[in-house]
Protein backbone atom coordinates (compact mmCIF):
# COMPACT_ATOMS: atom_id res chain seq x y z
CA UNK A 1 0.00 0.00 0.00
CA UNK A 2 1.26 3.46 -0.92
CA UNK A 3 2.31 5.71 1.95
CA UNK A 4 1.56 8.77 -0.14
CA UNK A 5 -2.04 9.93 0.60
CA UNK A 6 -2.12 12.17 -2.47
CA UNK A 7 -1.22 9.30 -4.73
CA UNK A 8 -3.91 7.17 -3.09
CA UNK A 9 -6.56 9.83 -3.66
CA UNK A 10 -5.46 10.23 -7.26
CA UNK A 11 -5.83 6.50 -7.85
CA UNK A 12 -9.28 6.33 -6.17
CA UNK A 13 -10.70 9.40 -7.98
CA UNK A 14 -10.78 7.89 -11.52
CA UNK A 15 -12.28 4.67 -10.13
CA UNK A 16 -15.09 6.64 -8.44
CA UNK A 17 -15.59 8.68 -11.61
CA UNK A 18 -15.90 5.51 -13.75
CA UNK A 19 -18.33 3.87 -11.32
CA UNK A 20 -20.45 7.00 -11.23
CA UNK A 21 -20.55 7.17 -15.02
CA UNK A 22 -21.49 3.50 -15.16
CA UNK A 23 -24.24 4.17 -12.63
CA UNK A 24 -25.56 7.10 -14.66
CA UNK A 25 -25.42 4.98 -17.80
CA UNK A 26 -27.49 2.22 -16.19
CA UNK A 27 -29.97 4.77 -14.81
CA UNK A 28 -30.28 6.46 -18.20
CA UNK A 29 -30.75 3.13 -19.98
CA UNK A 30 -33.39 2.04 -17.46
CA UNK A 31 -35.14 5.37 -17.85
CA UNK A 32 -35.10 5.03 -21.63
CA UNK A 33 -36.42 1.44 -21.44
CA UNK A 34 -39.14 2.46 -18.99
CA UNK A 35 -40.10 5.44 -21.13
CA UNK A 36 -40.18 3.35 -24.28
CA UNK A 37 -42.17 0.65 -22.50
CA UNK A 38 -44.59 3.23 -21.16
CA UNK A 39 -44.94 4.81 -24.58
CA UNK A 40 -45.50 1.40 -26.17
CA UNK A 41 -48.12 0.55 -23.53
CA UNK A 42 -49.89 3.85 -24.22
CA UNK A 43 -49.82 3.21 -27.97
CA UNK A 44 -51.14 -0.35 -27.53
CA UNK A 45 -53.85 0.88 -25.18
CA UNK A 46 -54.89 3.57 -27.66
CA UNK A 47 -54.83 1.05 -30.51
CA UNK A 48 -56.94 -1.42 -28.52
CA UNK A 49 -59.37 1.38 -27.68
CA UNK A 50 -59.65 2.32 -31.35
CA UNK A 51 -60.16 -1.38 -32.22
CA UNK A 52 -62.98 -1.67 -29.71
CA UNK A 53 -64.45 1.72 -30.65
CA UNK A 54 -64.10 2.21 -34.43
CA UNK A 55 -64.70 5.61 -36.00
CA UNK A 56 -68.33 6.40 -36.58
CA UNK A 57 -70.30 9.53 -37.50
CA UNK A 58 -72.76 8.79 -34.75
CA UNK A 59 -73.32 6.00 -32.23
CA UNK A 60 -72.39 2.44 -33.15
CA UNK A 61 -74.79 -0.37 -32.25
CA UNK A 62 -73.79 -2.14 -29.01
CA UNK A 63 -71.46 -5.10 -29.11
CA UNK A 64 -67.80 -6.09 -28.99
CA UNK A 65 -65.06 -6.18 -31.60
CA UNK A 66 -63.25 -9.09 -29.94
CA UNK A 67 -59.51 -9.65 -30.22
CA UNK A 68 -57.31 -7.67 -32.60
CA UNK A 69 -57.06 -9.08 -36.13
CA UNK A 70 -59.26 -12.15 -35.53
CA UNK A 71 -62.18 -10.32 -33.91
CA UNK A 72 -64.82 -12.75 -32.62
CA UNK A 73 -64.34 -15.27 -35.43
CA UNK A 74 -63.48 -18.14 -33.09
CA UNK A 75 -66.79 -17.70 -31.26
CA UNK A 76 -68.68 -17.85 -34.54
CA UNK A 77 -67.13 -21.12 -35.72
CA UNK A 78 -67.39 -23.04 -32.42
CA UNK A 79 -69.51 -26.11 -33.29
CA UNK A 80 -73.00 -26.46 -31.82
CA UNK A 81 -74.83 -29.80 -31.95
CA UNK A 82 -78.26 -28.32 -32.53
CA UNK A 83 -80.57 -26.93 -35.20
CA UNK A 84 -81.10 -23.94 -32.94
CA UNK A 85 -79.63 -20.54 -33.71
CA UNK A 86 -75.80 -20.55 -33.43
CA UNK A 87 -74.87 -19.64 -29.82
CA UNK A 88 -72.67 -16.80 -31.10
CA UNK A 89 -75.71 -15.01 -32.50
CA UNK A 90 -78.23 -16.17 -29.89
CA UNK A 91 -76.26 -14.98 -26.83
CA UNK A 92 -75.46 -11.61 -28.38
CA UNK A 93 -79.06 -10.95 -29.36
CA UNK A 94 -80.02 -11.68 -25.77
CA UNK A 95 -77.29 -9.35 -24.47
CA UNK A 96 -77.35 -6.49 -27.00
CA UNK A 97 -80.69 -6.74 -28.77
CA UNK A 98 -81.54 -7.58 -32.40
CA UNK A 99 -78.86 -5.31 -33.89
CA UNK A 100 -75.27 -5.53 -32.67
CA UNK A 101 -71.70 -5.02 -33.87
CA UNK A 102 -68.88 -7.54 -34.01
CA UNK A 103 -65.72 -8.30 -35.98
CA UNK A 104 -65.31 -11.42 -38.09
CA UNK A 105 -61.97 -12.37 -39.64
CA UNK A 106 -60.73 -8.79 -39.19
CA UNK A 107 -63.79 -7.13 -40.76
CA UNK A 108 -66.24 -4.96 -38.79
CA UNK A 109 -69.72 -6.46 -39.10
CA UNK A 110 -73.22 -5.44 -38.04
CA UNK A 111 -75.54 -8.37 -37.32
CA UNK A 112 -79.26 -7.64 -37.59
CA UNK A 113 -82.13 -9.90 -36.58
CA UNK A 114 -84.63 -7.05 -36.85
CA UNK A 115 -87.39 -8.19 -39.23
CA UNK A 116 -88.45 -4.75 -40.48
CA UNK A 117 -84.90 -3.47 -40.85
CA UNK A 118 -83.84 -6.59 -42.76
CA UNK A 119 -86.84 -6.25 -45.07
CA UNK A 120 -85.95 -2.59 -45.63
CA UNK A 121 -82.30 -3.36 -46.44
CA UNK A 122 -83.23 -6.04 -48.97
CA UNK A 123 -85.25 -3.41 -50.83
CA UNK A 124 -82.24 -1.08 -50.83
CA UNK A 125 -79.86 -3.27 -52.83
CA UNK A 126 -77.76 -1.06 -55.08
CA UNK A 127 -78.81 2.04 -53.13
CA UNK A 128 -77.93 1.91 -49.42
CA UNK A 129 -76.36 -1.55 -49.55
CA UNK A 130 -74.81 -3.94 -52.01
CA UNK A 131 -74.29 -7.70 -51.97
CA UNK A 132 -71.04 -8.73 -50.34
CA UNK A 133 -68.98 -11.71 -49.23
CA UNK A 134 -66.57 -12.22 -46.36
CA UNK A 135 -62.94 -12.79 -47.30
CA UNK A 136 -63.08 -16.55 -47.90
CA UNK A 137 -66.15 -16.23 -50.11
CA UNK A 138 -64.67 -13.20 -51.87
CA UNK A 139 -61.58 -15.20 -52.87
CA UNK A 140 -63.83 -17.91 -54.33
CA UNK A 141 -66.73 -15.82 -55.63
CA UNK A 142 -65.52 -12.59 -57.22
CA UNK A 143 -67.30 -9.35 -56.29
CA UNK A 144 -68.78 -8.45 -59.68
CA UNK A 145 -70.10 -5.23 -61.15
CA UNK A 146 -73.76 -4.25 -61.20
CA UNK A 147 -74.05 -4.70 -64.98
CA UNK A 148 -72.55 -8.19 -64.87
CA UNK A 149 -74.89 -9.15 -62.02
CA UNK A 150 -77.89 -8.15 -64.10
CA UNK A 151 -76.58 -10.19 -67.02
CA UNK A 152 -75.93 -13.18 -64.77
CA UNK A 153 -79.41 -13.03 -63.27
CA UNK A 154 -81.10 -12.84 -66.66
CA UNK A 155 -78.94 -15.65 -68.03
CA UNK A 156 -79.71 -17.86 -65.03
CA UNK A 157 -83.45 -17.22 -65.29
CA UNK A 158 -83.39 -17.99 -69.02
CA UNK A 159 -81.64 -21.34 -68.52
CA UNK A 160 -82.82 -22.41 -65.05
CA UNK A 161 -85.98 -20.35 -64.47
CA UNK A 162 -89.65 -21.31 -64.66
CA UNK A 163 -89.90 -21.47 -68.46
CA UNK A 164 -86.81 -23.68 -68.77
CA UNK A 165 -88.02 -25.89 -65.93
CA UNK A 166 -91.46 -26.33 -67.42
CA UNK A 167 -90.33 -26.88 -71.01
CA UNK A 168 -87.25 -29.10 -70.66
CA UNK A 169 -85.56 -29.40 -67.23
CA UNK A 170 -88.30 -31.15 -65.22
CA UNK A 171 -88.24 -34.43 -67.22
CA UNK A 172 -84.43 -34.39 -67.24
CA UNK A 173 -84.44 -33.96 -63.44
CA UNK A 174 -86.85 -36.85 -63.04
CA UNK A 175 -84.71 -39.17 -65.16
CA UNK A 176 -81.50 -38.23 -63.32
CA UNK A 177 -83.09 -38.69 -59.87
CA UNK A 178 -84.67 -42.01 -60.90
CA UNK A 179 -81.30 -43.33 -62.06
CA UNK A 180 -79.58 -42.09 -58.90
CA UNK A 181 -82.06 -43.55 -56.41
CA UNK A 182 -82.04 -46.84 -58.29
CA UNK A 183 -78.25 -46.95 -57.92
CA UNK A 184 -78.46 -46.06 -54.22
CA UNK A 185 -80.92 -48.90 -53.62
CA UNK A 186 -78.32 -51.42 -54.86
CA UNK A 187 -75.83 -50.38 -52.15
CA UNK A 188 -75.57 -51.56 -48.54
CA UNK A 189 -75.83 -47.91 -47.46
CA UNK A 190 -75.55 -44.44 -48.96
CA UNK A 191 -74.18 -41.27 -47.41
CA UNK A 192 -76.99 -39.15 -48.77
CA UNK A 193 -75.41 -35.70 -48.33
CA UNK A 194 -72.28 -36.35 -50.42
CA UNK A 195 -74.17 -38.60 -52.82
CA UNK A 196 -76.72 -35.85 -53.47
CA UNK A 197 -73.89 -33.38 -54.12
CA UNK A 198 -72.71 -35.77 -56.83
CA UNK A 199 -76.23 -35.92 -58.25
CA UNK A 200 -76.75 -32.14 -58.28
CA UNK A 201 -73.26 -31.31 -59.58
CA UNK A 202 -73.47 -33.88 -62.38
CA UNK A 203 -76.93 -32.71 -63.41
CA UNK A 204 -76.07 -29.01 -63.37
CA UNK A 205 -72.79 -29.64 -65.20
CA UNK A 206 -74.67 -31.26 -68.09
CA UNK A 207 -76.82 -28.14 -68.44
CA UNK A 208 -73.78 -25.85 -68.27
CA UNK A 209 -71.34 -27.60 -70.60
CA UNK A 210 -72.96 -30.85 -71.73
CA UNK A 211 -70.66 -33.80 -71.04
CA UNK A 212 -67.33 -32.02 -71.40
CA UNK A 213 -66.16 -33.07 -67.92
CA UNK A 214 -67.35 -36.68 -68.02
CA UNK A 215 -63.78 -37.92 -68.54
CA UNK A 216 -62.06 -35.37 -66.28
CA UNK A 217 -59.22 -36.77 -64.10
CA UNK A 218 -60.80 -35.29 -60.95
CA UNK A 219 -64.43 -35.53 -59.82
CA UNK A 220 -66.17 -32.19 -59.56
CA UNK A 221 -68.33 -33.39 -56.67
CA UNK A 222 -65.27 -34.37 -54.58
CA UNK A 223 -63.69 -30.97 -55.11
CA UNK A 224 -66.91 -29.19 -54.21
CA UNK A 225 -67.15 -31.13 -50.95
CA UNK A 226 -63.71 -29.82 -49.95
CA UNK A 227 -64.66 -26.33 -51.02
CA UNK A 228 -67.87 -26.20 -48.96
CA UNK A 229 -66.09 -27.37 -45.81
CA UNK A 230 -63.65 -24.47 -46.04
CA UNK A 231 -65.95 -21.60 -46.92
CA UNK A 232 -66.74 -20.58 -43.34
CA UNK A 233 -63.30 -21.42 -41.98
CA UNK A 234 -60.84 -18.85 -40.69
CA UNK A 235 -59.04 -17.39 -43.76
CA UNK A 236 -55.62 -18.84 -42.94
CA UNK A 237 -54.01 -20.10 -46.14
CA UNK A 238 -51.62 -22.67 -44.65
CA UNK A 239 -51.35 -26.28 -45.87
CA UNK A 240 -53.55 -28.54 -43.77
CA UNK A 241 -56.20 -25.92 -43.02
CA UNK A 242 -59.76 -26.08 -44.36
CA UNK A 243 -59.25 -22.69 -46.00
CA UNK A 244 -56.20 -23.96 -47.88
CA UNK A 245 -58.10 -27.04 -49.11
CA UNK A 246 -60.96 -24.78 -50.16
CA UNK A 247 -58.72 -22.57 -52.28
CA UNK A 248 -56.91 -25.58 -53.71
CA UNK A 249 -60.20 -27.14 -54.80
CA UNK A 250 -61.30 -23.82 -56.26
CA UNK A 251 -58.12 -23.66 -58.33
CA UNK A 252 -58.54 -27.25 -59.56
CA UNK A 253 -62.15 -26.68 -60.63
CA UNK A 254 -61.23 -23.48 -62.46
CA UNK A 255 -58.38 -25.23 -64.28
CA UNK A 256 -60.76 -27.97 -65.47
CA UNK A 257 -63.28 -25.41 -66.64
CA UNK A 258 -60.56 -23.35 -68.36
CA UNK A 259 -59.58 -26.38 -70.40
CA UNK A 260 -63.22 -27.00 -71.38
CA UNK A 261 -63.67 -23.35 -72.39
CA UNK A 262 -60.48 -23.28 -74.49
CA UNK A 263 -61.44 -26.45 -76.35
CA UNK A 264 -64.98 -25.24 -76.94
CA UNK A 265 -63.81 -21.87 -78.33
CA UNK A 266 -61.54 -23.68 -80.79
CA UNK A 267 -64.40 -25.89 -81.93
CA UNK A 268 -67.20 -25.01 -84.33
CA UNK A 269 -69.55 -27.48 -82.67
CA UNK A 270 -72.87 -25.98 -81.54
CA UNK A 271 -74.57 -27.22 -78.39
CA UNK A 272 -77.72 -26.23 -76.57
CA UNK A 273 -75.99 -25.55 -73.25
CA UNK A 274 -75.24 -22.42 -71.25
CA UNK A 275 -71.56 -22.33 -72.24
CA UNK A 276 -72.51 -22.05 -75.92
CA UNK A 277 -74.58 -18.93 -75.21
CA UNK A 278 -71.80 -17.40 -73.09
CA UNK A 279 -69.23 -17.85 -75.83
CA UNK A 280 -71.57 -16.25 -78.38
CA UNK A 281 -72.17 -13.27 -76.07
CA UNK A 282 -68.44 -12.61 -75.68
CA UNK A 283 -68.62 -10.55 -78.89
CA UNK A 284 -71.24 -8.16 -77.45
CA UNK A 285 -70.61 -8.04 -73.68
CA UNK A 286 -67.33 -6.38 -72.69
CA UNK A 287 -67.15 -7.99 -69.23
CA UNK A 288 -67.48 -11.54 -70.63
CA UNK A 289 -63.85 -12.57 -70.35
CA UNK A 290 -62.75 -16.18 -70.01
CA UNK A 291 -62.15 -15.57 -66.31
CA UNK A 292 -65.66 -14.22 -65.82
CA UNK A 293 -67.25 -17.18 -67.64
CA UNK A 294 -65.30 -19.69 -65.54
CA UNK A 295 -66.25 -17.90 -62.34
CA UNK A 296 -69.91 -17.75 -63.38
CA UNK A 297 -70.10 -21.47 -64.16
CA UNK A 298 -68.32 -22.23 -60.91
CA UNK A 299 -70.83 -20.17 -58.92
CA UNK A 300 -73.82 -21.76 -60.66
CA UNK A 301 -72.53 -25.23 -59.82
CA UNK A 302 -72.01 -24.27 -56.20
CA UNK A 303 -75.45 -22.76 -55.58
CA UNK A 304 -77.10 -25.76 -57.22
CA UNK A 305 -75.33 -28.29 -55.00
CA UNK A 306 -74.89 -27.45 -51.32
CA UNK A 307 -78.37 -26.16 -50.45
CA UNK A 308 -80.17 -28.96 -52.31
CA UNK A 309 -77.96 -31.72 -50.91
CA UNK A 310 -78.29 -30.47 -47.33
CA UNK A 311 -82.06 -30.14 -47.65
CA UNK A 312 -82.32 -33.67 -49.10
CA UNK A 313 -80.28 -35.10 -46.22
CA UNK A 314 -82.50 -33.37 -43.68
CA UNK A 315 -85.58 -34.64 -45.51
CA UNK A 316 -84.46 -38.23 -44.90
CA UNK A 317 -84.07 -37.45 -41.20
CA UNK A 318 -87.24 -35.44 -40.60
CA UNK A 319 -89.53 -37.74 -42.58
CA UNK A 320 -88.18 -40.83 -40.82
CA UNK A 321 -88.70 -39.17 -37.42
CA UNK A 322 -92.23 -37.95 -38.25
CA UNK A 323 -94.16 -40.84 -39.83
CA UNK A 324 -97.42 -38.85 -39.84
CA UNK A 325 -95.77 -36.26 -42.13
CA UNK A 326 -94.36 -39.03 -44.33
CA UNK A 327 -97.81 -40.61 -44.62
CA UNK A 328 -99.43 -37.33 -45.70
CA UNK A 329 -96.62 -36.60 -48.15
CA UNK A 330 -96.81 -40.10 -49.65
CA UNK A 331 -100.59 -39.80 -50.03
CA UNK A 332 -100.21 -36.55 -51.99
CA UNK A 333 -97.76 -38.11 -54.43
CA UNK A 334 -99.65 -41.36 -54.83
CA UNK A 335 -102.73 -39.29 -55.69
CA UNK A 336 -100.71 -37.61 -58.47
CA UNK A 337 -99.81 -41.03 -59.89
CA UNK A 338 -103.37 -42.33 -59.65
CA UNK A 339 -104.64 -39.47 -61.83
CA UNK A 340 -102.34 -40.47 -64.69
CA UNK A 341 -103.48 -42.85 -67.40
CA UNK A 342 -100.04 -44.40 -67.25
CA UNK A 343 -98.39 -44.35 -63.82
CA UNK A 344 -94.97 -44.48 -65.49
CA UNK A 345 -95.54 -41.29 -67.50
CA UNK A 346 -93.27 -38.38 -66.55
CA UNK A 347 -94.18 -35.60 -64.16
CA UNK A 348 -95.73 -32.50 -65.68
CA UNK A 349 -95.61 -28.90 -64.59
CA UNK A 350 -99.22 -29.13 -63.41
CA UNK A 351 -98.20 -32.14 -61.27
CA UNK A 352 -95.52 -30.02 -59.64
CA UNK A 353 -97.90 -27.11 -59.05
CA UNK A 354 -100.32 -29.50 -57.32
CA UNK A 355 -97.73 -30.53 -54.69
CA UNK A 356 -99.13 -28.25 -51.99
CA UNK A 357 -98.08 -30.25 -48.94
CA UNK A 358 -94.73 -31.11 -50.55
CA UNK A 359 -93.83 -27.43 -50.82
CA UNK A 360 -94.87 -26.95 -47.18
CA UNK A 361 -92.50 -29.77 -46.21
CA UNK A 362 -89.70 -28.18 -48.25
CA UNK A 363 -90.35 -24.77 -46.64
CA UNK A 364 -90.24 -26.31 -43.18
CA UNK A 365 -86.96 -28.10 -43.88
CA UNK A 366 -85.45 -24.89 -45.26
CA UNK A 367 -86.71 -22.94 -42.24
CA UNK A 368 -85.26 -25.37 -39.71
CA UNK A 369 -82.16 -26.21 -41.72
CA UNK A 370 -80.88 -22.64 -42.06
CA UNK A 371 -78.02 -23.85 -44.22
CA UNK A 372 -76.24 -20.50 -43.75
CA UNK A 373 -76.69 -18.05 -40.85
CA UNK A 374 -77.81 -15.19 -43.07
CA UNK A 375 -77.38 -12.88 -46.04
CA UNK A 376 -74.43 -10.51 -46.43
CA UNK A 377 -74.57 -6.89 -47.53
CA UNK A 378 -72.15 -3.93 -47.43
CA UNK A 379 -73.18 -0.40 -46.47
CA UNK A 380 -72.65 1.99 -49.39
CA UNK A 381 -73.14 4.96 -47.05
CA UNK A 382 -73.82 5.65 -43.38
CA UNK A 383 -77.16 4.08 -42.39
CA UNK A 384 -79.21 5.25 -39.40
CA UNK A 385 -81.35 2.78 -37.44
CA UNK A 386 -82.96 3.17 -34.00
CA UNK A 387 -80.56 5.95 -32.97
CA UNK A 388 -77.49 4.03 -34.13
CA UNK A 389 -75.29 4.48 -37.19
CA UNK A 390 -73.90 1.75 -39.42
CA UNK A 391 -70.74 3.23 -40.98
CA UNK A 392 -70.15 3.22 -44.71
CA UNK A 393 -68.14 0.18 -45.82
CA UNK A 394 -69.18 -2.05 -42.95
CA UNK A 395 -70.47 -5.54 -43.68
CA UNK A 396 -74.05 -6.27 -42.59
CA UNK A 397 -75.18 -9.82 -41.80
CA UNK A 398 -78.95 -10.12 -42.14
CA UNK A 399 -79.46 -13.01 -39.73
CA UNK A 400 -82.27 -14.83 -41.52
CA UNK A 401 -81.74 -17.84 -39.26
CA UNK A 402 -82.79 -15.70 -36.28
CA UNK A 403 -86.03 -14.81 -38.08
CA UNK A 404 -86.71 -18.42 -39.09
CA UNK A 405 -86.42 -19.51 -35.45
CA UNK A 406 -88.21 -16.56 -33.86
CA UNK A 407 -90.93 -17.90 -31.54
CA UNK A 408 -93.05 -14.77 -32.04
CA UNK A 409 -93.28 -15.61 -35.75
CA UNK A 410 -93.18 -19.42 -35.69
CA UNK A 411 -94.78 -21.24 -32.76
CA UNK A 412 -92.47 -23.89 -31.26
CA UNK A 413 -89.80 -22.92 -33.81
CA UNK A 414 -87.58 -25.97 -33.24
CA UNK A 415 -90.45 -28.37 -33.96
CA UNK A 416 -90.73 -29.86 -37.44
CA UNK A 417 -94.29 -28.97 -38.40
CA UNK A 418 -95.03 -28.50 -42.14
CA UNK A 419 -98.71 -27.90 -41.31
CA UNK A 420 -97.82 -24.49 -39.90
CA UNK A 421 -97.53 -23.19 -43.48
CA UNK A 422 -101.24 -23.69 -44.23
CA UNK A 423 -102.45 -20.67 -42.29
CA UNK A 424 -99.25 -18.66 -41.85
CA UNK A 425 -99.68 -14.90 -42.11
CA UNK A 426 -98.44 -13.72 -45.54
CA UNK A 427 -96.42 -10.93 -43.91
CA UNK A 428 -94.49 -13.54 -41.93
CA UNK A 429 -93.63 -15.38 -45.14
CA UNK A 430 -92.67 -12.14 -46.90
CA UNK A 431 -90.50 -10.70 -44.15
CA UNK A 432 -89.37 -13.58 -41.93
CA UNK A 433 -88.73 -16.43 -44.37
CA UNK A 434 -85.87 -15.90 -46.79
CA UNK A 435 -83.92 -19.11 -47.54
CA UNK A 436 -83.21 -17.80 -51.05
CA UNK A 437 -83.14 -14.08 -50.31
CA UNK A 438 -86.16 -11.86 -50.71
CA UNK A 439 -88.14 -9.87 -53.26
CA UNK A 440 -86.44 -8.93 -56.52
CA UNK A 441 -83.11 -10.05 -55.06
CA UNK A 442 -84.29 -13.59 -54.43
CA UNK A 443 -81.83 -16.12 -55.80
CA UNK A 444 -82.50 -16.69 -59.50
CA UNK A 445 -82.21 -20.43 -58.85
CA UNK A 446 -84.86 -20.53 -56.09
CA UNK A 447 -87.55 -22.18 -58.24
CA UNK A 448 -84.96 -24.56 -59.70
CA UNK A 449 -84.11 -25.74 -56.17
CA UNK A 450 -87.77 -26.19 -55.21
CA UNK A 451 -88.56 -28.17 -58.37
CA UNK A 452 -85.51 -30.38 -57.87
CA UNK A 453 -86.42 -31.06 -54.23
CA UNK A 454 -90.09 -31.71 -55.01
CA UNK A 455 -89.16 -34.14 -57.80
CA UNK A 456 -86.67 -35.91 -55.53
CA UNK A 457 -89.31 -36.31 -52.80
CA UNK A 458 -91.89 -37.53 -55.31
CA UNK A 459 -89.68 -40.40 -56.47
CA UNK A 460 -88.35 -41.14 -52.98
CA UNK A 461 -91.70 -41.54 -51.18
CA UNK A 462 -93.52 -43.36 -53.99
CA UNK A 463 -90.80 -45.89 -54.84
CA UNK A 464 -88.53 -46.31 -51.81
CA UNK A 465 -88.26 -46.67 -48.06
CA UNK A 466 -85.14 -45.93 -46.01
CA UNK A 467 -83.51 -46.72 -42.68
CA UNK A 468 -80.66 -44.99 -40.86
CA UNK A 469 -77.55 -47.17 -40.77
CA UNK A 470 -74.95 -44.82 -39.32
CA UNK A 471 -74.33 -41.16 -38.49
CA UNK A 472 -77.11 -38.62 -38.24
CA UNK A 473 -75.33 -36.08 -36.06
CA UNK A 474 -75.93 -32.41 -36.91
CA UNK A 475 -73.42 -29.64 -36.17
CA UNK A 476 -73.48 -25.90 -36.82
CA UNK A 477 -70.16 -24.09 -37.22
CA UNK A 478 -72.05 -21.86 -38.25
CA UNK A 479 -73.00 -23.53 -41.56
CA UNK A 480 -74.89 -26.77 -40.93
CA UNK A 481 -72.78 -29.89 -41.34
CA UNK A 482 -73.06 -33.65 -40.74
CA UNK A 483 -69.68 -34.75 -39.28
CA UNK A 484 -70.45 -38.48 -39.38
CA UNK A 485 -72.62 -38.30 -42.48
CA UNK A 486 -76.21 -39.46 -42.98
CA UNK A 487 -75.85 -43.12 -43.99
CA UNK A 488 -79.14 -44.70 -45.06
CA UNK A 489 -80.13 -48.03 -46.51
CA UNK A 490 -82.45 -47.28 -49.44
CA UNK A 491 -84.85 -50.15 -50.30
CA UNK A 492 -87.32 -50.33 -53.20
CA UNK A 493 -90.96 -50.65 -52.25
CA UNK A 494 -92.46 -53.98 -53.30
TrEMBL record:
Coiled coil: none annotated. Heme binds at residue 443. It comes from Lactuca saligna (Willowleaf lettuce). GO terms for biological process: brassinosteroid biosynthetic process; brassinosteroid homeostasis; sterol metabolic process. PROSITE patterns: CYTOCHROME_P450 (PS00086). Its main location: membrane. The keyword Iron applies. One of its GO terms (molecular function) is monooxygenase activity. Its cofactor is heme. The lineage of its organism: Eukaryota, Viridiplantae, Streptophyta, Embryophyta, Tracheophyta. The keyword Membrane applies. Keywords: Heme, Iron, Membrane, Metal-binding, Monooxygenase, Oxidoreductase, Transmembrane, Transmembrane helix. It is a single-pass membrane protein. SUPFAM superfamilies: Cytochrome P450. It comes from the Eukaryota. It is found in: Membrane. Belongs to the cytochrome P450 family. InterPro entries: Cyt_P450, Cyt_P450_CS, Cyt_P450_E_grp-I, Cyt_P450_sf. Gene3D superfamilies: Cytochrome P450. One of its GO terms (cellular component) is membrane. The chain crosses the membrane at residues 20-45. This is Cytochrome P450.
Amino acid sequence: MSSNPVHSLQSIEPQMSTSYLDFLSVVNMSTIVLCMGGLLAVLIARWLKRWQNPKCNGVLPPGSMGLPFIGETLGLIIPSASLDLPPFIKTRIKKYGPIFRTNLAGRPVIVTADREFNHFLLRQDGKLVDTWSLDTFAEVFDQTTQSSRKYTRNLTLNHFGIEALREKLLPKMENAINDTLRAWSSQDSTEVKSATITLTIDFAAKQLFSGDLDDAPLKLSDMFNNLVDGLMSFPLNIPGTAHHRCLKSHKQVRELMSEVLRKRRCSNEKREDLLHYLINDMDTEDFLSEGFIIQLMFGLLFVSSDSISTTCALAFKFLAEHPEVLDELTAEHEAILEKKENMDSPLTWSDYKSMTFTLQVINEILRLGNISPGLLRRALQDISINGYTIPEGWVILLASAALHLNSSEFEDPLTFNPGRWKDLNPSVVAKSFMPFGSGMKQCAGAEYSRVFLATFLHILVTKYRWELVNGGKIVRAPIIRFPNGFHYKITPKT
